[in-house]
């Protein structure tokens, strides 16, 4: 292999970015961080890492998750490669992007604060550097398709949640309002939630708390369960 061939085809960098979805205060959110170095130092970006020649992309996704949340993610999926020629001023950089779901809790919030990361409102994402807004738009469409077919929305909620919280999550992800009665009928018919003897008393009226039936979810997933709304 001659030098000219290597220079022509072996000078492309690989990076991975992760769209982290979380749910807090009845809002779906996406995590951004400040860019640590040039180009665009200080601008908001998606959590990202360059991939060394001996690293797997998946290992870098795990590093991102561990650094920003310090918890094992329950669901992650590759989106696609973003390959525009001039997407990075430093040179040709191919971004193999992922999205992941994270349960936001006090530990996650503290970890994010330590890393100057910010949970942005799902529908109010600021202008990000590079093509990261395009990556987010693609991740949103993927999430919309997944929550229609798989009950992955449960993986964003706290361990105990109200039906209203669950409906709010799906309304945001699907970008449409849902009839309350029909939503409840669909949820209860799925038998994916278990009623607890606890209540949420933070509002004007106490609301029953439910939890996710993980065992039933696993069985339905193996059968290719259709969770279409």
Q: Would you kindly provide a written description of the structure presented here, covering whatever features stand out?
A:
- The chain has about 230 residues and is an alpha+beta fold.
- It has two domains: about 140 residues, Nucleoside Triphosphate Pyrophosphohydrolase, CATH 3.90.79; about 70 residues, Arc Repressor Mutant, subunit A (Orthogonal Bundle).
- About 35% of the residues lie in helices and about 25% in strands.
- The protein contains seven helices and nine strands.
- The strands form two sheets. Strands 1, 2, 3, 4, 5, 6 and 7 form a seven-stranded mixed β-sheet that branches.
- A hairpin with a 2-residue loop joins β1 and β2.
- The longest helix is centred in the middle third of the chain and has 18 residues.
- It starts with a helix and ends in a 6-residue tail after the last helix.
- About 25% of the residues are buried.
Structural class: alpha+beta
Low-confidence runs: none
The ordered string of helix (H) and strand (E) elements is HEEEEHEEHEHHHEEH
Helix content class: 25-40%
The count of β-strands is 9
Indicate how many domains the architecture comprises: 2
The CATH first-level class of the largest domain comes to Alpha Beta
The biggest sheet, with number of strands, parallel, antiparallel or mixed sense and barrel status, is: 7 strands, mixed
What is Rg? 20 Å
**At the fourth CATH level, what is the homologous superfamily of the largest domain?**
Nucleoside Triphosphate Pyrophosphohydrolase
Counting H and I runs of at least 4 residues, what is the number of helices? 7
Q: Approximately what portion of the residues adopt beta-strand conformation?
A: 25-35%
| Span of the ends, CA to CA | 55 Å
Query: If you consult CATH, what is the topology of the largest domain?
Result: Nucleoside Triphosphate Pyrophosphohydrolase
Roughly what is the average pLDDT, rounded to an integer? 92
Morphology call: elongated
CATH architecture of the largest domain: Alpha-Beta Complex
